[in-house]
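Protein 1 of 2
SEQ + STRUCT:
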Amino acid sequence: MRRPGPGRFVNLLMLLVLAAIIAGAAVYFFAFWDPTDVSEATLDRSGPAFVKLAIIGLVLAASMIFARPRLGEVLNAIILWGGLGLILVAGYSMRFELEDMAYRVMGSLMPGMAVEQGDGTVALARDRSGHYVVDASVNGASVRFLVDTGASMVTLSARDARAAGIDVANLHFGAVVSTANGRSQVAPVRISKLEIAGATLSNIRAFVARDGMLDTSLFGMNALDRFSSWRVEGGRMILVP
């Protein structure tokens, strides 16, 4: 029978030492670590981290002992995983810039798209011309709005009003408003439901413009004021329900 060489005894001894370290860390964590003690003079706050690091060290050491990788393989692995780690760190540190870039790209590729975010807010991307446009639903009909903080009221183009089921032919265009092209007459109406992504606005006062007066409907301040707040961050507008 062939006796095991001295190298195997060394490997076994090293593995036992590492296992003892793990066992000691586990006993320390479960028996002595006090999560309520935040004193900087003790190491109690590092208990869970110490256990995790000890486990990672055990796995790495065991792989080095039993697999015996070549030096070139070790260097390649260090370069590969180190590079991936640097990319992750760089991506995390630049997450806000990358997010802003993503919204700019989205605004160019999909202008008008409103995105409901995880916190319930609605994000609008800026289009190529620098304006905020949003695809919404008015009484079930799809309408693209130009967000206009200079407009006091939501104003529908005649085409969009017809699509939303409003009888434009029987409206009374008696209200006079001032626009960039001068004074114009519009008709006051009520919009039953206006939906943007996950936000729903009900019973909205609005104007309907005459045929040919507007190319794009306007999302005015009376609709923006229905949100608890709104703000502009980089390349996007955030609406807070």
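Protein 2 of 2
SEQ + STRUCT:
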Amino acid sequence: MEVPILEAGSGPLVLCLHGFPDHAASWTGILDRLAQEGYWAVAPAQRGYWPGGAAPDGSYRPYSTGQDALALIEVLGREQADLIGHDFGAAAAYAAANLDATRVRKLVTMAVPHGRQVLNAFVSDGDQQRRSWYMFFFQTAMAEAAVELDDFAFIDRLWREWSPGYELPDAERAALKETLRAPGVLTETLGYYRQAFSPPADEAAQALATRSYGAITVPSLYLHGADDNCMSAELSAGMDDLFTNGLERIVVPGAGHFLHLEQPKTVADHILGFLNS
């Protein structure tokens, strides 16, 4: 399968993995900063995010998107890369580092913590259940119609709620909706949520899934917006035991869920300080 990518610069490879409701284009500013610092920055479309890009095995679980990241490193002709992941892209980055740590030099993740505390919060934390209402709604058959209604007003609502005080520029908003409007894409992207609460059926996939949730053995940086109304920053506290080669955790003030767009200079400075150290 050919994967659409955005890229900038040349040098050591850095992969930037996007989440939902988002697409590779939101990395443009970070790609440019990385390129200026001497990196080859590449942002692929995640499986399902383009016509004909549906998961070949039907899986949208992190072990599958993590395998995609590892495969892309190889296809791009590199032995190793730094990984930057946001939202579902963070889940893919964790999985990739767990499935083959030799291919990942450093790990940067944003907005979605690593560890069982996230799943536990969906079960027991009323505040997080309120924030995550959309995940449960996406399990229903009416989700596609609701999301598409009135020029994807549902998507506007998520961005507004998750990043209070931030307004995605009109041109970027239109480009994102164009991605989601493409034939078949919305249903495929909702697959990430529809598979989030159930394990894969076959034993080999179950084993991969288990491995993908293990302890991270590469140096790691975690960033979370202080005002994130999608995933509470508090869920990222206490992750250190799951990162055996060091974890730097930073809560970014004045930022919500899409912190790399809301505070681009601050986030890029943190990322580059970590990658260059």
